[in-house]
Amino acid sequence: MSRVVVIGCGGVASVAIHKCCQLDDVFTDLCIASRTVSKCDKLKEELKGKTKTNITTYKVDANSFDELVKLFNEYKPDIVMNLGMPYQNLVIMDACLECNCHYLDTAAYEPEDVDNPVWRAQYEKRVKEKGFTAYFDYSYQWDYHEKFEKKGLIALLGCGFDPGVTQAYVAYARKHEFDRIDEIDILDCNGGDHGYPFATNFNPEINLREVSSEGAYYENGRWYSIPALSVKDVYDFDGVGKKDIYLLHHEEIESIVKNYPEIKRIRFYMTFGESYIRHMKCLENVGMLSTTPVEYEGIMITPIQFLKKMLPDPASLGPRTVGKTNIGCIFKGVKDGKPKTYYIYNVCDHQESYKEVKSQAISYTTGVPAMCGALMILKGLWTKTGARTVEEYNPDPFIEALDKYGLPKRENYNPVLVK
Ligand code: NDP
Protein backbone atom coordinates (compact mmCIF):
# COMPACT_ATOMS: atom_id res chain seq x y z
CA MET A 1 0.00 0.00 0.00
CA SER A 2 1.36 3.42 -0.90
CA ARG A 3 0.11 6.88 -1.71
CA VAL A 4 2.04 8.82 -4.35
CA VAL A 5 1.59 12.30 -5.81
CA VAL A 6 3.15 12.91 -9.23
CA ILE A 7 3.63 16.59 -10.08
CA GLY A 8 3.52 17.24 -13.83
CA CYS A 9 1.92 15.28 -16.64
CA GLY A 10 4.40 15.73 -19.51
CA GLY A 11 6.66 13.24 -21.29
CA VAL A 12 8.63 12.00 -18.27
CA ALA A 13 5.68 11.96 -15.84
CA SER A 14 3.55 10.01 -18.30
CA VAL A 15 6.15 7.21 -18.52
CA ALA A 16 6.70 7.13 -14.74
CA ILE A 17 2.91 6.93 -14.19
CA HIS A 18 2.54 4.09 -16.74
CA LYS A 19 5.37 2.20 -15.00
CA CYS A 20 3.95 2.79 -11.48
CA CYS A 21 0.64 1.43 -12.76
CA GLN A 22 2.41 -1.73 -13.98
CA LEU A 23 3.46 -2.29 -10.33
CA ASP A 24 0.00 -1.78 -8.91
CA ASP A 25 0.68 -3.98 -5.87
CA VAL A 26 3.20 -1.33 -4.67
CA PHE A 27 1.76 1.86 -6.23
CA THR A 28 -1.78 1.34 -5.00
CA ASP A 29 -2.93 5.00 -4.93
CA LEU A 30 -1.62 7.68 -7.25
CA CYS A 31 -2.61 11.32 -7.73
CA ILE A 32 -1.57 13.03 -10.97
CA ALA A 33 -1.33 16.73 -10.15
CA SER A 34 -0.43 19.28 -12.79
CA ARG A 35 -1.13 22.73 -14.18
CA THR A 36 -3.27 21.51 -17.10
CA VAL A 37 -5.61 19.03 -15.45
CA SER A 38 -7.13 17.91 -18.77
CA LYS A 39 -3.80 16.16 -19.58
CA CYS A 40 -4.01 14.32 -16.23
CA ASP A 41 -7.63 13.27 -16.93
CA LYS A 42 -6.67 12.05 -20.41
CA LEU A 43 -3.87 9.87 -19.03
CA LYS A 44 -6.16 8.52 -16.30
CA GLU A 45 -8.67 7.57 -19.00
CA GLU A 46 -5.93 5.84 -21.06
CA LEU A 47 -4.94 3.73 -18.06
CA LYS A 48 -8.51 2.74 -17.19
CA GLY A 49 -8.89 -1.05 -17.05
CA LYS A 50 -5.13 -1.60 -17.44
CA THR A 51 -4.17 -1.26 -13.76
CA LYS A 52 -5.50 -1.76 -10.25
CA THR A 53 -3.82 1.51 -9.14
CA ASN A 54 -6.46 3.91 -7.90
CA ILE A 55 -5.77 7.10 -9.91
CA THR A 56 -7.05 10.57 -9.05
CA THR A 57 -6.25 13.87 -10.75
CA TYR A 58 -5.77 17.36 -9.34
CA LYS A 59 -5.11 20.83 -10.69
CA VAL A 60 -2.15 22.45 -8.98
CA ASP A 61 0.20 25.35 -9.61
CA ALA A 62 3.49 24.02 -8.28
CA ASN A 63 4.73 27.59 -7.78
CA SER A 64 2.24 27.94 -4.94
CA PHE A 65 3.32 26.58 -1.54
CA ASP A 66 -0.25 26.97 -0.27
CA GLU A 67 -1.78 24.97 -3.13
CA LEU A 68 0.81 22.21 -2.69
CA VAL A 69 0.27 22.02 1.07
CA LYS A 70 -3.51 21.86 0.57
CA LEU A 71 -3.08 18.97 -1.88
CA PHE A 72 -0.57 17.07 0.28
CA ASN A 73 -2.65 17.53 3.44
CA GLU A 74 -5.75 16.25 1.65
CA TYR A 75 -4.10 13.34 -0.21
CA LYS A 76 -1.48 12.42 2.43
CA PRO A 77 1.18 11.02 0.07
CA ASP A 78 4.09 8.88 1.28
CA ILE A 79 6.18 10.38 -1.53
CA VAL A 80 5.89 13.25 -3.99
CA MET A 81 7.49 12.64 -7.38
CA ASN A 82 8.33 16.03 -8.86
CA LEU A 83 8.34 15.35 -12.62
CA GLY A 84 7.45 18.87 -13.70
CA MET A 85 9.94 21.69 -14.06
CA PRO A 86 13.11 22.12 -11.96
CA TYR A 87 12.07 25.74 -11.26
CA GLN A 88 9.66 24.45 -8.61
CA ASN A 89 12.00 22.00 -6.83
CA LEU A 90 12.52 24.17 -3.75
CA VAL A 91 8.89 25.09 -3.14
CA ILE A 92 7.84 21.45 -3.56
CA MET A 93 10.59 20.40 -1.09
CA ASP A 94 9.27 23.00 1.37
CA ALA A 95 5.75 21.61 1.02
CA CYS A 96 7.03 18.03 1.53
CA LEU A 97 8.74 19.10 4.76
CA GLU A 98 5.56 20.86 5.91
CA CYS A 99 3.43 17.75 5.22
CA ASN A 100 5.98 15.04 6.16
CA CYS A 101 6.41 13.24 2.84
CA HIS A 102 9.42 11.99 0.94
CA TYR A 103 10.50 13.86 -2.21
CA LEU A 104 12.01 12.82 -5.55
CA ASP A 105 12.96 14.74 -8.71
CA THR A 106 14.90 14.23 -11.94
CA ALA A 107 16.75 17.54 -12.47
CA ALA A 108 18.67 19.94 -10.23
CA TYR A 109 17.01 23.21 -9.22
CA GLU A 110 17.50 26.17 -11.50
CA PRO A 111 15.67 29.49 -11.25
CA GLU A 112 13.16 30.49 -13.88
CA ASP A 113 14.29 34.12 -13.63
CA VAL A 114 18.08 34.29 -13.91
CA ASP A 115 17.96 38.10 -13.63
CA ASN A 116 16.75 37.95 -10.02
CA PRO A 117 19.44 39.98 -8.18
CA VAL A 118 19.49 37.81 -5.02
CA TRP A 119 19.97 34.63 -7.04
CA ARG A 120 22.41 36.38 -9.41
CA ALA A 121 24.72 37.39 -6.52
CA GLN A 122 24.88 33.78 -5.28
CA TYR A 123 25.45 32.55 -8.82
CA GLU A 124 28.34 34.95 -9.48
CA LYS A 125 29.94 33.85 -6.18
CA ARG A 126 29.71 30.19 -7.19
CA VAL A 127 31.10 30.88 -10.67
CA LYS A 128 34.10 32.59 -9.04
CA GLU A 129 34.65 29.93 -6.37
CA LYS A 130 33.87 26.75 -8.27
CA GLY A 131 34.50 27.66 -11.89
CA PHE A 132 31.45 26.39 -13.75
CA THR A 133 28.78 28.65 -15.13
CA ALA A 134 25.69 26.44 -15.55
CA TYR A 135 22.50 27.90 -14.12
CA PHE A 136 21.79 24.67 -12.24
CA ASP A 137 23.75 23.38 -9.29
CA TYR A 138 22.95 21.22 -6.27
CA SER A 139 23.83 23.72 -3.53
CA TYR A 140 20.24 25.00 -3.22
CA GLN A 141 18.85 21.52 -2.67
CA TRP A 142 21.77 20.31 -0.52
CA ASP A 143 20.87 23.18 1.82
CA TYR A 144 17.75 21.14 2.66
CA HIS A 145 19.78 18.10 3.81
CA GLU A 146 19.53 18.67 7.55
CA LYS A 147 15.88 19.69 7.43
CA PHE A 148 14.94 16.41 5.70
CA GLU A 149 17.25 14.39 7.98
CA LYS A 150 15.72 15.91 11.13
CA LYS A 151 12.23 14.91 9.96
CA GLY A 152 13.34 11.38 9.01
CA LEU A 153 12.50 12.07 5.36
CA ILE A 154 14.32 11.38 2.08
CA ALA A 155 14.76 13.92 -0.72
CA LEU A 156 16.11 11.85 -3.60
CA LEU A 157 17.65 14.32 -6.04
CA GLY A 158 18.07 13.71 -9.77
CA CYS A 159 16.63 10.21 -10.16
CA GLY A 160 16.26 10.06 -13.95
CA PHE A 161 18.88 8.52 -16.25
CA ASP A 162 21.44 11.31 -16.31
CA PRO A 163 21.42 12.43 -13.58
CA GLY A 164 20.28 9.27 -11.82
CA VAL A 165 21.22 5.94 -13.34
CA THR A 166 24.67 7.29 -14.30
CA GLN A 167 25.40 7.80 -10.59
CA ALA A 168 24.08 4.32 -9.75
CA TYR A 169 26.54 3.05 -12.39
CA VAL A 170 29.36 4.87 -10.58
CA ALA A 171 28.38 3.34 -7.22
CA TYR A 172 28.00 -0.08 -8.86
CA ALA A 173 31.38 0.11 -10.62
CA ARG A 174 33.10 1.19 -7.39
CA LYS A 175 31.40 -1.61 -5.43
CA HIS A 176 31.92 -4.49 -7.85
CA GLU A 177 34.61 -3.62 -10.39
CA PHE A 178 37.19 -1.24 -8.90
CA ASP A 179 39.28 -0.64 -5.78
CA ARG A 180 39.83 2.87 -7.06
CA ILE A 181 38.23 4.88 -9.88
CA ASP A 182 40.51 7.44 -11.55
CA GLU A 183 38.52 8.69 -14.54
CA ILE A 184 34.91 8.67 -15.73
CA ASP A 185 33.42 9.69 -19.06
CA ILE A 186 29.62 9.82 -19.07
CA LEU A 187 28.30 9.38 -22.63
CA ASP A 188 24.70 10.26 -23.50
CA CYS A 189 23.80 9.29 -27.04
CA ASN A 190 20.43 9.78 -28.65
CA GLY A 191 20.50 8.04 -32.02
CA GLY A 192 16.80 8.72 -32.55
CA ASP A 193 15.31 10.45 -35.57
CA HIS A 194 11.92 12.20 -35.21
CA GLY A 195 11.90 13.55 -38.76
CA TYR A 196 11.58 17.24 -37.75
CA PRO A 197 14.36 19.69 -38.71
CA PHE A 198 14.40 20.81 -35.06
CA ALA A 199 12.77 19.52 -31.87
CA THR A 200 14.03 18.80 -28.37
CA ASN A 201 13.46 15.39 -26.84
CA PHE A 202 12.64 16.72 -23.39
CA ASN A 203 11.29 20.03 -22.13
CA PRO A 204 12.62 22.61 -24.67
CA GLU A 205 13.29 25.32 -22.10
CA ILE A 206 15.44 23.13 -19.89
CA ASN A 207 17.10 21.38 -22.84
CA LEU A 208 18.11 24.58 -24.64
CA ARG A 209 19.26 26.32 -21.47
CA GLU A 210 21.49 23.31 -20.74
CA VAL A 211 22.99 22.89 -24.20
CA SER A 212 23.62 26.58 -24.89
CA SER A 213 25.49 27.02 -21.56
CA GLU A 214 29.27 26.88 -21.30
CA GLY A 215 30.60 23.34 -20.91
CA ALA A 216 32.69 22.25 -17.91
CA TYR A 217 34.63 19.26 -16.65
CA TYR A 218 36.46 18.37 -13.47
CA GLU A 219 40.14 17.44 -13.32
CA ASN A 220 42.62 17.14 -10.44
CA GLY A 221 40.51 19.00 -7.91
CA ARG A 222 39.26 21.88 -10.05
CA TRP A 223 36.69 22.79 -12.69
CA TYR A 224 37.53 23.82 -16.24
CA SER A 225 35.00 25.82 -18.27
CA ILE A 226 34.88 25.79 -22.05
CA PRO A 227 32.75 27.74 -24.55
CA ALA A 228 29.47 25.96 -25.38
CA LEU A 229 29.92 23.00 -27.76
CA SER A 230 33.61 23.80 -28.36
CA VAL A 231 34.94 20.32 -27.55
CA LYS A 232 33.79 17.75 -30.08
CA ASP A 233 34.73 14.13 -30.77
CA VAL A 234 33.21 11.08 -32.48
CA TYR A 235 32.23 7.85 -30.70
CA ASP A 236 30.97 4.56 -32.09
CA PHE A 237 28.01 3.55 -29.90
CA ASP A 238 26.74 0.00 -29.50
CA GLY A 239 23.29 -0.22 -31.09
CA VAL A 240 23.56 3.24 -32.70
CA GLY A 241 26.85 3.64 -34.60
CA LYS A 242 29.15 6.65 -34.98
CA LYS A 243 27.91 9.98 -33.57
CA ASP A 244 29.39 13.41 -32.87
CA ILE A 245 29.77 13.94 -29.13
CA TYR A 246 30.10 17.33 -27.40
CA LEU A 247 31.41 18.08 -23.93
CA LEU A 248 28.77 19.70 -21.67
CA HIS A 249 28.47 20.45 -17.98
CA HIS A 250 26.00 18.17 -16.23
CA GLU A 251 24.83 18.17 -12.64
CA GLU A 252 25.89 14.65 -11.68
CA ILE A 253 29.56 15.61 -12.09
CA GLU A 254 29.11 17.93 -9.11
CA SER A 255 27.71 15.26 -6.81
CA ILE A 256 30.03 12.47 -7.99
CA VAL A 257 33.19 14.49 -7.22
CA LYS A 258 31.73 15.34 -3.80
CA ASN A 259 30.93 11.71 -2.99
CA TYR A 260 34.03 10.15 -4.61
CA PRO A 261 36.91 12.57 -4.00
CA GLU A 262 39.39 9.91 -5.27
CA ILE A 263 38.24 10.59 -8.86
CA LYS A 264 40.78 12.60 -10.85
CA ARG A 265 38.74 13.46 -13.92
CA ILE A 266 35.06 13.42 -14.97
CA ARG A 267 33.65 14.58 -18.26
CA PHE A 268 30.12 14.46 -19.68
CA TYR A 269 29.42 14.15 -23.42
CA MET A 270 26.14 14.33 -25.32
CA THR A 271 25.44 13.63 -28.99
CA PHE A 272 23.87 16.25 -31.28
CA GLY A 273 23.19 16.20 -34.99
CA GLU A 274 24.28 19.02 -37.27
CA SER A 275 20.73 20.24 -37.83
CA TYR A 276 20.04 20.56 -34.09
CA ILE A 277 23.17 22.64 -33.53
CA ARG A 278 22.57 24.84 -36.57
CA HIS A 279 19.02 25.64 -35.46
CA MET A 280 20.01 26.19 -31.83
CA LYS A 281 22.82 28.59 -32.74
CA CYS A 282 20.54 30.52 -35.06
CA LEU A 283 17.79 30.80 -32.42
CA GLU A 284 20.40 31.87 -29.87
CA ASN A 285 21.83 34.49 -32.24
CA VAL A 286 18.44 36.11 -32.74
CA GLY A 287 17.70 36.14 -29.00
CA MET A 288 15.04 33.41 -28.93
CA LEU A 289 16.81 31.52 -26.11
CA SER A 290 16.66 34.54 -23.82
CA THR A 291 14.96 34.10 -20.45
CA THR A 292 14.50 37.86 -20.02
CA PRO A 293 10.93 39.00 -20.78
CA VAL A 294 10.46 41.53 -23.60
CA GLU A 295 7.45 43.71 -24.33
CA TYR A 296 5.54 42.87 -27.50
CA GLU A 297 2.51 45.04 -28.29
CA GLY A 298 1.88 45.67 -24.61
CA ILE A 299 2.34 42.07 -23.49
CA MET A 300 5.45 40.77 -21.69
CA ILE A 301 6.81 37.68 -23.44
CA THR A 302 9.75 35.48 -22.43
CA PRO A 303 11.39 34.50 -25.75
CA ILE A 304 12.37 30.93 -24.73
CA GLN A 305 8.85 30.26 -23.41
CA PHE A 306 7.32 31.53 -26.64
CA LEU A 307 9.76 29.31 -28.57
CA LYS A 308 8.61 26.34 -26.48
CA LYS A 309 5.04 27.01 -27.65
CA MET A 310 6.19 26.89 -31.28
CA LEU A 311 8.25 23.68 -31.03
CA PRO A 312 6.86 20.15 -31.13
CA ASP A 313 5.83 18.92 -27.66
CA PRO A 314 8.45 16.27 -26.69
CA ALA A 315 5.58 14.09 -25.44
CA SER A 316 4.22 14.03 -29.03
CA LEU A 317 7.44 12.70 -30.62
CA GLY A 318 6.80 9.08 -29.61
CA PRO A 319 4.98 7.76 -32.69
CA ARG A 320 7.49 9.28 -35.15
CA THR A 321 10.84 8.66 -33.42
CA VAL A 322 12.90 5.70 -34.61
CA GLY A 323 16.34 4.53 -33.50
CA LYS A 324 17.95 3.97 -30.13
CA THR A 325 19.55 5.74 -27.19
CA ASN A 326 22.75 4.57 -25.54
CA ILE A 327 23.65 6.15 -22.19
CA GLY A 328 26.37 5.03 -19.80
CA CYS A 329 29.73 5.52 -18.12
CA ILE A 330 33.27 4.50 -19.10
CA PHE A 331 35.64 4.03 -16.17
CA LYS A 332 39.41 3.88 -15.80
CA GLY A 333 40.81 2.74 -12.48
CA VAL A 334 42.51 -0.02 -10.55
CA LYS A 335 41.40 -3.47 -9.38
CA ASP A 336 43.66 -5.80 -7.36
CA GLY A 337 46.64 -3.58 -8.10
CA LYS A 338 46.11 -3.71 -11.89
CA PRO A 339 44.82 -0.97 -14.23
CA LYS A 340 41.32 -1.67 -15.53
CA THR A 341 38.72 -0.15 -17.87
CA TYR A 342 34.97 -0.83 -17.78
CA TYR A 343 31.89 0.48 -19.60
CA ILE A 344 28.36 0.07 -18.27
CA TYR A 345 25.43 1.40 -20.30
CA ASN A 346 21.88 0.88 -21.46
CA VAL A 347 20.52 0.78 -25.00
CA CYS A 348 16.85 1.76 -25.34
CA ASP A 349 14.75 1.61 -28.51
CA HIS A 350 12.40 4.54 -29.24
CA GLN A 351 9.75 2.41 -30.95
CA GLU A 352 9.82 -0.31 -28.28
CA SER A 353 9.26 2.41 -25.67
CA TYR A 354 6.38 3.78 -27.70
CA LYS A 355 4.79 0.36 -28.03
CA GLU A 356 4.94 -0.14 -24.28
CA VAL A 357 4.05 3.27 -22.82
CA LYS A 358 3.29 5.58 -25.77
CA SER A 359 6.49 7.65 -25.31
CA GLN A 360 9.86 8.05 -26.97
CA ALA A 361 13.00 6.68 -25.29
CA ILE A 362 14.21 9.95 -23.69
CA SER A 363 11.06 10.16 -21.59
CA TYR A 364 11.24 6.39 -21.06
CA THR A 365 14.86 6.41 -19.85
CA THR A 366 13.93 9.17 -17.36
CA GLY A 367 10.51 7.95 -16.22
CA VAL A 368 11.56 4.36 -15.51
CA PRO A 369 14.40 5.34 -13.08
CA ALA A 370 12.04 7.81 -11.37
CA MET A 371 9.58 4.95 -10.75
CA CYS A 372 12.45 2.67 -9.61
CA GLY A 373 13.73 5.37 -7.19
CA ALA A 374 10.26 5.72 -5.65
CA LEU A 375 10.10 1.92 -5.44
CA MET A 376 13.40 1.83 -3.49
CA ILE A 377 11.98 4.28 -0.94
CA LEU A 378 8.50 2.77 -0.68
CA LYS A 379 9.88 -0.77 -0.23
CA GLY A 380 12.35 0.42 2.42
CA LEU A 381 15.38 -0.60 0.33
CA TRP A 382 16.85 2.93 0.48
CA THR A 383 16.49 4.44 3.93
CA LYS A 384 19.23 7.07 4.36
CA THR A 385 17.42 10.31 5.16
CA GLY A 386 18.35 13.82 4.01
CA ALA A 387 18.73 15.42 0.58
CA ARG A 388 20.90 12.96 -1.33
CA THR A 389 21.82 11.92 -4.85
CA VAL A 390 21.55 8.39 -6.24
CA GLU A 391 25.22 7.36 -5.82
CA GLU A 392 24.79 7.63 -2.02
CA TYR A 393 22.55 4.55 -1.95
CA ASN A 394 23.15 0.82 -2.51
CA PRO A 395 23.13 0.52 -6.32
CA ASP A 396 22.31 -3.21 -6.41
CA PRO A 397 18.52 -3.25 -5.85
CA PHE A 398 18.10 -0.18 -8.09
CA ILE A 399 20.07 -1.67 -10.97
CA GLU A 400 18.21 -4.95 -10.48
CA ALA A 401 14.92 -3.02 -10.74
CA LEU A 402 16.12 -1.22 -13.90
CA ASP A 403 17.10 -4.60 -15.42
CA LYS A 404 13.63 -5.93 -14.62
CA TYR A 405 11.49 -2.92 -15.54
CA GLY A 406 12.88 -1.92 -18.93
CA LEU A 407 16.43 -0.53 -18.77
CA PRO A 408 18.78 -3.52 -18.59
CA LYS A 409 22.50 -2.82 -18.25
CA ARG A 410 25.12 -3.90 -20.76
CA GLU A 411 28.80 -4.22 -19.85
CA ASN A 412 32.05 -4.04 -21.81
CA TYR A 413 35.40 -4.87 -20.19
CA ASN A 414 37.47 -3.60 -23.10
CA PRO A 415 35.78 -0.37 -24.23
CA VAL A 416 37.14 2.14 -26.73
CA LEU A 417 38.06 5.18 -24.65
CA VAL A 418 37.26 8.82 -25.46
CA LYS A 419 40.47 10.77 -26.24
P1 NDP B 1 7.32 18.46 -20.14
O1 NDP B 1 7.41 19.87 -20.54
O2 NDP B 1 6.87 17.42 -21.10
O3 NDP B 1 6.38 18.35 -18.84
C1 NDP B 1 6.41 19.26 -17.78
C2 NDP B 1 5.12 19.11 -17.01
O4 NDP B 1 5.17 19.97 -15.85
C3 NDP B 1 3.89 19.54 -17.82
O5 NDP B 1 2.85 18.63 -17.56
C4 NDP B 1 3.57 20.92 -17.25
O6 NDP B 1 2.23 21.29 -17.31
C5 NDP B 1 3.97 20.72 -15.80
N1 NDP B 1 4.18 22.01 -15.15
C6 NDP B 1 4.99 23.02 -15.57
N2 NDP B 1 4.91 24.06 -14.74
C7 NDP B 1 4.02 23.70 -13.78
C8 NDP B 1 3.51 24.36 -12.64
N3 NDP B 1 3.86 25.60 -12.31
N4 NDP B 1 2.62 23.68 -11.87
C9 NDP B 1 2.23 22.42 -12.17
N5 NDP B 1 2.67 21.76 -13.23
C10 NDP B 1 3.57 22.39 -14.03
O7 NDP B 1 8.76 18.08 -19.53
P2 NDP B 1 9.47 16.64 -19.53
O8 NDP B 1 8.51 15.62 -19.08
O9 NDP B 1 10.21 16.47 -20.80
O10 NDP B 1 10.58 16.88 -18.39
C11 NDP B 1 10.21 16.82 -17.01
C12 NDP B 1 11.45 16.98 -16.15
O11 NDP B 1 12.36 15.91 -16.38
C13 NDP B 1 12.26 18.27 -16.44
O12 NDP B 1 12.64 18.82 -15.21
C14 NDP B 1 13.49 17.77 -17.18
O13 NDP B 1 14.61 18.59 -16.95
C15 NDP B 1 13.68 16.40 -16.51
N6 NDP B 1 14.47 15.46 -17.33
C16 NDP B 1 15.44 14.71 -16.69
C17 NDP B 1 16.20 13.80 -17.39
C18 NDP B 1 17.17 12.91 -16.68
O14 NDP B 1 17.68 11.96 -17.29
N7 NDP B 1 17.46 13.11 -15.42
C19 NDP B 1 16.06 13.64 -18.85
C20 NDP B 1 14.93 14.39 -19.41
C21 NDP B 1 14.20 15.28 -18.66
P3 NDP B 1 1.53 21.87 -18.68
O15 NDP B 1 0.98 20.65 -19.31
O16 NDP B 1 0.52 22.83 -18.20
O17 NDP B 1 2.63 22.52 -19.49
Question: Tags for this entry?
Answer:
single chain, 419 residues, alpha/beta, 18 strands, globular, binds NADPH dihydro-nicotinamide-adenine-dinucleotide phosphate
Write structural notes for this entry.
The chain has 419 residues and is an alpha/beta fold. The protein is built from 15 helices and 18 strands. The strands form 3 sheets. Strands 7, 8, 9, 10, 11, 12, 15, 16 and 18 form a 9-stranded mixed sheet that branches. Strands 3-2-1-4-5-6-17 form a 7-stranded parallel sheet, sandwiched between helices. Helix 1 crosses helix 14 (361-378), helix 3 crosses helix 4 (89-99) and helix 14 (361-378) packs across helix 15 (395-404). It is globular, with a radius of gyration of 20 Å. The model has no long low-confidence stretch (mean pLDDT 96). Residues 8-13, 34-36, 39, 60-63, 83-86, 88, 106-107, 158, 160-164, 202-203, 206, 314-315, 362, 366 line the site of NADPH dihydro-nicotinamide-adenine-dinucleotide phosphate.
Overall pLDDT confidence: 96
Give a short account of the largest sheet: 9 strands, mixed
Taking pLDDT < 50 over at least 5 consecutive residues as the criterion, the unreliable ranges are none
Number of helices: 15
What fraction of residues sit in β-strands?
Answer: 25-35%
Based on DSSP secondary structure assignment, what is the total number of beta strands? 18
**What's the end-to-end separation, in Å?**
49 Å
> Level of helix content?
25-40%
**Could you tell me which ligands this complex binds, including any ions or cofactors?**
NADPH dihydro-nicotinamide-adenine-dinucleotide phosphate
Content-based structural category: alpha/beta
What is the radius of gyration? 20 Å
